[in-house]
Amino acid sequence: MHELDRLLQELVSQAQSYPKDTDPKKRKIRPLLWEIMFPGSSLRREKKTTDDDEKSQAIYGEAKRRLAGLKKWCRDKHGAMLASDFEQDWNDVMGDVLEEVLTKIDIYKRGVDFELFKEWQKFSKISASERTPEFYSEFQKEVEKFRRRFEQRRKNKKTKTYTSEKSQSLAQSCEKLCQNIQKTEVDLGQIWNIFCDEVQQLYRPLKFWNWFAFYVKSRFIDFIRDRVKEISTAEPSGSKHNQRLIYAKAVIIFAFDILLQIWLYQIASMMQEYERKLKQIQTMEWIDRDPDGIFRGEHIRNFPDVNFRAIAILKFKQASLKEIQEHFGNRVNAQTTISPFYTRTCSYFKPIIEDWSLD
């Protein structure tokens, strides 16, 4: 991981430690965000610096490079369609995105989306005495909507499905959240954090910079949509015929550009999926060989054959928890023992596997 990404992660952790919607949070995080992600930009207050530390220079250099690439992407994709001062549009988008990032930074890497986060904020502000059965029921509906959105966004592009094991884990976490909030004298903050931690295990969060870039690209799409509306409602500057031609051209270019982006995204996704599966197969072949015996060595107490290597091979073959339990003769409970053991051991072996894959 690049030092820029490490520094941004620290910034996010610091931001999430502040109470929600507080001025100190905005006053402290806003300057740090600009300083790290926009070094030398006119968007932030100019700051003289005498820090020649190579590490800092490398971080700022990487931020400039990424920002220039993002800006070029937006200019190439949307500059012609905006038909305006791109630099001003860029500054306007950056201002909007900063506010959006500061608003949503508390949900970054938490697994939940902003819709559920807003509903949770409303729920947690209501005192226990005011929470009627109907109130709980309405919040439970919002949790169910979130569950469906979460699975829909992560469906496999080819099979159009979300893995049954993850789907079951998500449903259990959502059900547990709705049950726990109805208990008396509960710590809502702790319940929410546990729920977010569980959901976080079911998806792969973007790096903070990629998360930020997603909002930048989304805001430029919004700009284009607004401009098309302006064209359709503006007073004609020439003949009605010319007005229709200008509008039709803008709509056609916009539609073609969106279709092209979708096609390119699909191609890139297919390549990424192919590379991911190839690496997964190579990793599993290495685990199966287990040349040093490290994967066989991690096993459930008193059951040497119920080891990480054996479980990993079954998981790779898409075996269900029931099938895994039956494979080991129903001697160990898959839900309460094998699954937690496998999760812990995956975390233990993760650095070793990553180092091997880089060789």
Q: Mean of residue pLDDT?
A: 80
Cα shape: globular
Biggest sheet character: 2 strands, antiparallel
Measured distance between first and last alpha carbons: 16 Å
Helix segment tally: 14
Structural class: mainly alpha
- Quaternary form: single chain
Secondary-structure element series: HHHHHHHHHHHEEHHH
Q: Identify low-pLDDT runs.
A: 42-51
Radius of gyration: 25 Å
How many structural domains?
Answer: 3
Helix content: over 70%
Beta-sheet strand percentage? under 5%
| Strand runs, count | 2
Strand line-up in the sheet with most strands: 1-2
Reconstruct the topology from this structure:
Elements: H1 3-17, H2 23-37, H3 54-82, H4 86-104, H5 114-125, H6 133-153, H7 164-180, H8 188-200, H9 208-233, H10 240-289, H11 294-297, E1 299-300, E2 303-307, H12 308-316, H13 321-327, H14 334-358
Antiparallel strand pairs: 1-2
Concise summary:
The chain is mainly α and 359 residues long. The protein contains 14 helices and 2 strands; from the N terminus they run αααααααααααββααα.
Description of the structure:
It is a single chain. By secondary structure, the protein is mainly α. It has 3 domains: 3-107, no CATH class; 114-200, no CATH class; 294-358, no CATH class. Helix content is 73%, strand content 2%. The protein is built from 14 helices and 2 strands. The protein has helices at 3-17, 23-37, 54-82, 86-104, 114-125, 133-153, 164-180, 188-200, 208-233, 240-289, 294-297, 308-316, 321-327, 334-358; strands at residues 299-300, 303-307. A two-stranded antiparallel ribbon has the order 1-2. A hairpin with a 2-residue loop joins strand 1 and strand 2. The protein is globular and about 70 Å long. The two termini are 16 Å apart. The model is unreliable at 42-51 (pLDDT under 50).
